[in-house]
Amino acid sequence: PPPALLLVPDFPDGGEPSAERLRRQRVCLERLGRPAAPTDVRGTVQVLGGPGPKEVTVRYTFNEWLSFVDVPAAPLPPDPPAERYGFTLCVPPSLREGSALHFAIRYRSPQGEFWDNNAGRNYTLRCCGCPGGGPAPPAAAPP
Predict the structure, then answer these.
(1) Which stretches make up the CBM21 domain (predicted)?
(2) Is there a contact between 101 and 7 (Cβ–Cβ < 8 Å)?
């Protein structure tokens, strides 16, 4: 069988966003689901909210930004002082080992437009073969 593929973060896991980083950027990637599934990537975002309407989107690409998709993030229960949003990025079945998914997070509000793009490097997930690949072998019968 072909090897199983995983999307592996190609950036350090900084853990929870710091209060200082959130104050400075107004939007921060909170966490990704672990491990990222080969069919979708799920994550959460924190924003430093304010009055008025808000829009949080995740912009992502599979072809080095020749084209991209903007996906809206959905509000989650707040975690004061931040508001939280969840997102899901759909991964095409054509993604192959060595491919990359790049993304950045945009937050729009009456206070302006703010981005979390991993300090200008974008967030990157690399498509890697899983050791042992293929489906798991059947469990052995108990003696």
Answers:
(1) 19-126
(2) yes
CA dihedral 20, 33, 43, 82 (to 10 degrees): -40
The candidate with the shortest Cα–Cα distance to 92, out of 118, 141, 127, is: 127
Contact 56, 46 (CB under 8 A): no
Q: Which long-range contacts (CB under 8 A, 24 or more apart) does 112-120 make?
A: 114/25, 114/26, 114/27, 114/47, 115/25, 115/27, 116/25, 116/27, 116/28, 116/29, 116/45, 118/11, 118/29
Question: How many domains are contained in the chain?
Answer: 1
Asked if the structure places residue 75 within a domain, the reply is yes
Question: What is the chain's pLDDT, residue by residue, as a tens digit (143 residues)?
Answer: 455 678 888 887 666 678 888 999 999 999 988 655 567 889 999 999 888 999 999 999 999 999 999 999 999 998 888 899 999 998 887 788 889 999 999 999 999 999 999 999 999 999 887 654 443 333 333 33
Find the radius of gyration of the CA atoms of the chain. Answer: 17
Q: Is the peptide bond between 35 and the residue preceding it cis, with omega within 30 degrees of 0? A: yes
Q: Are 44 and 75 in contact (CB under 8 A)?
A: no
Whose tokens are 């998914």? That residue is: 101
